[in-house]
Structure formats: structure tokens, C-alpha cells
Design brief:
There is one protein chain. This protein is 34% helix and 17% strand. By secondary structure, the chain is α/β, with parallel strands linked by helices. It is globular, with a radius of gyration of 19 Å. This is NmrA-like domain-containing protein. It comes from Penicillium thymicola. One of its GO terms (molecular function) is oxidoreductase activity.
Length: 302
């Protein structure tokens, strides 16, 4: 199998490393030939994300895995072009759109600033039957529990509940809403396993879970690992004021994503979540928070 990874950003860096260690061929589709360290031995093909360009660059591929970020018109346009290129291709008939998201199956309106663009892509995917596809719902990337020096992912400010500089952990409400965390590498390996499972039906949404726990439980684990962490209580009123003051729904900044912390959309539905080392994920092992923290102590980017 030959896989094209669309995009060459932070998330792509993990996928490139994991895919390149598999028996399958990997190429990267990017607007430029600029390379990050993970792409040292990978073929990079430049594209302007038009249908014709994508067809030319993926004609020898079996699948496209998108890591392109949103939300904006470019996200929608590029994904619709990838889909059309796959429809027209005699070979490339598997497509993982860029979601890497919370439970958009049961909560299609969340997060507010992403929902419009993702739902536009979802509608187009459902309107055709030639290309297999699935949105990967990995929920929060577990990598954010480590400082930026231990991950490819950039900081996202107070959109994530941990400030690694001040060692302050934001507790939304009573801190009892469960959240799911899955590392980017484990997500990449699960995605590869799904792409290999081309002979079985795919669900519109593929749910993953490295570990599901409450923020209070997460804080307790972090506190044992590093006693310098402290708690800060954040109320729903605090977040709503932030959204109103900054017009966050339109600008796509912090307050809107923080709303997720007060809902169940950040928790994977256990009855629909793939099980590690079973079925599609046979041979793939997901890490819980404790294992991931341990890996972070010995590896530069676990």
C-alpha cells in the first residue's frame, strides 16, 4: 500500500514517522518543499490542492490521510478537492479526512468554530459511495500533558487545561466530566491499521481512547509525577465572558474550545470505541496516561 499524507505540520510529523516505519510506502503532499526533521527520507510532492494537482500527485497511491488544519474555506476546499481526486482516481479509494477531534458523531456542533467547515466536508463524503472514508475521533491529544520540549505539537494557550510554564491546571466546573486522551503516535498507528483494513466496512466515525478519566483524576496523576502543579477553578461564566469579550466564535480562539470542558463531547463512547490489540487494532497498543508520562521521561518525543 502507498499512502499520501496531506500536510506537513505538527500532526503530520508524527504520522510521517509512524507510517515510514511500516512496510508501506509514504509520500507527503505539501504546498512547499520545506522539510521538517521527520521528512528527511520521505518523498515530498508539491501541490496547490486543486483536483488536477492532487490527481497527478496521488495517481500511484492507494490512500490519502489528511492532516490539514482548519477552520477556514481553504480547509473545506482542499478536502473537497482531495475527495474529488479520489473519486476520479482508478486506484486511490481510501481517504482519512482531517478531524483528529472530539465526538463529532454525537456532538456535530462542537467545537463551535470548527463545526461549519467539518460538517461541510462530512456532507460531501456522505453524498458519494466510491471512496471509503472515516473521521478519526481521538479526542484530546495526550501529548499536551507534556511540555512543548517533548512534543511536535505547538502550545495552544488556554485552550488546553494545563499551563506548563506556570504549572497551573485549569479545572472546569466540578472537574468530574470525563475526557478522553489518545497520543498522536497511537492515533497514527490506529489510522494505519484502519487504512490496511480496506476489505471491511468503515464507520463514518472511528473512536479511539488511550485513557478516559476526569480532569481531577488527571491532575492527581500529574501531581504525583510533578508535585509543583496547582489547581485553578474555571467556571462556565468565566468562559462565556471570555467568548463574548473576544468574539471567540468568529476568531476561533480559546474560549470556544474551553466550552468542551463542560460537556460530554470530549469523552469517547465506550460501546463504539475500538479496542486496542483487538480486531482492526490487532497488534496496536494504546498508552494510558501513566505509560505516556513514563515514556516522556525517557524519550524526546514519545
Amino acid at each position: 500500500m502507498k499512502i499520501a499524507i496531506a500536510g506537513a505540520g505538527d500532526v503530520a510529523a508524527y504520522f510521517i514517522e509512524e507510517f515510514s516505519q511500516s512496510p508501506h510506502e509514504t509520500v507527503v503532499l505539501s504546498r512547499s518543499l520545506e522539510r521538517n526533521p521527520s521528512m528527511s527520507n520521505i518523498e515530498v510532492r508539491t501541490t496547490d490542492y486543486t483536483v488536477d494537482s492532487l490527481k497527478d500527485n496521488s495517481q500511484d497511491c492507494d490512500a490519502i490521510d489528511s492532516t490539514l488544519a482548519g477552520p477556514n474555506e481553504a480547509y473545506v476546499a482542499s478536502h473537497l478537492a482531495i475527495l474529488e481526486a479520489c473519486i476520479q482516481s482508478p486506484r486511490c479509494k481510501r481517504f482519512i479526512p482531517s478531524g483528529w477531534t472530539i465526538n463529532m458523531e454525537d456532538f456535530p456542533d462542537q467545537p463551535l468554530y470548527l463545526s461549519k467547515s467539518r460538517n461541510a466536508v462530512l456532507e460531501a463524503l456522505r453524498a458519494q459511495s466510491e471512496v471509503k472514508w472515516s473521521f478519526m475521533c481521538n479526542y484530546w491529544f495526550m501529548d499536551y500533558i507534556l511540555p512543548v520540549s517533548n512534543r511536535f505539537l505547538k502550545d495552544i494557550g488556554n485552550e488546553w487545561l494545563m499551563n506548563h510554564t506556570t504549572k497551573v491546571f485549569d479545572l472546569y466546573g466540578d472537574g468530574l466530566q470525563e475526557i478522553t486522551l489518545t497520543s498522536v503516535r497511537d492515533t497514527a498507528q490506529a489510522t494505519l491499521a484502519l487504512l490496511q483494513a480496506h476489505d471491511i466496512p468503515w464507520s463514518d466515525f472511528t473512536h479511539l481512547s488511550g485513557e478516559t478519566l476526569t480532569p481531577r483524576e488527571l491532575f492527581a496523576l500529574l501531581k504525583r509525577h510533578d508535585p509543583s502543579w496547582s489547581l485553578r477553578n474555571i467556571t462556565l461564566t468565566d468562559v462565556l465572558r471570555d467568548i463574548i469579550d473576544t468574539n471567540a466564535v468568529e476568531s476561533g480562539i480559546s474560549g470556544v474550545l474551553r466550552l468542551v470542558g463542560f460537556t460530554n463531547c470530549g469523552k469517547s463512547p465506550s460501546e463504539r470505541t475500538l479496542q486496542w490489540n483487538t480486531g482492526i487494532l490487532a497488534g496496536v497498543h494504546g498508552r494510558d496516561v501513566g505509560s505516556f508520562l513514563a515514556d516522556g521521561s525517557t524519550k524526546r518525543v514519545p
